Amino acid sequence: MAQREESEFVAFAEACRPALRRTAYLMCGDWERAADITQEALVRVYIAWPRLDQDHGLRAYARRAVMSVAIEHARKKSSREVPTSHVSDRAMDDPTTRVADRLLLMTALAELPPRQRACVVLRFYDDLSVEAVAEALGCRAGTVKSQTARGLDALRAAYARHGGELLVRPRVPAEASTEASTEASTEASTEASTEASTETREATR
User: Fold this and answer.
1) pLDDT tens profile 123-175
2) Quick one: DSSP state of residue 183?
3) Following DSSP, what letter does each residue of 48-102 receive, concatenated?
4) What's the start-to-end Cα distance of the chain, in Å?
5) What gap in Å lies between CA 106 and CA 109, rounded to an integer?
6) What domains, with CATH codes, occur in the chain?
7) Residue 139 carries which DSSP code?
8) How many degrees, rounded to 5, is the angle at CA 191 between CA 138 and CA 106?
């Protein structure tokens, strides 16, 4: 890689790392592991840098790399660990008063299969369109819609099992409103998406 390209990559990595790490955290529930996932993803971006479109697609490629690494890690972890429904009472190093909310959110997200979790995180935390999520995950838009709907249903059920509930706020994406007018299943997902988006944002602050 030429010196100029090296400098451009370093600037890009420094600018994107915080957002990528937050996304990775929502995928794995651990800040240290999120940092590892982010670092591995940026290594992949570095390797691909010379052939990437420098005007468009850099962030999309980096996001796709993060999701790919996170899903790979989740699958490896699930093969080694036994899942539990117990929510730890251990306090986290968090200066805010939202520790309990964060624990509940991450416990609920952890129960989702990796692809459903990825769709929920990208759609309702990163505020990506269906098409952008499909690009990030390398799948069709229809797959994103179905995986998101199932993921939101599972997230709501997980919250209920742990004694919580998703709070409804009147914020419905325009594209979701359009789809809801023609698909009954999407109408349910629209309501759930509002809840998930709000709860995820507040719990991760």
Assistant:
1) 988 889 999 999 999 999 999 999 999 999 998 888 888 777 765 333 334 34
2) -
3) HGGGS-SSSSHHHHHHHHHHHHHHHHHHHHHTT-----PPP-PPPS-SSS-HHHH
4) 37
5) 5
6) 1-82 (1.10.1740), 90-205 (1.10.10.10)
7) S
8) 65
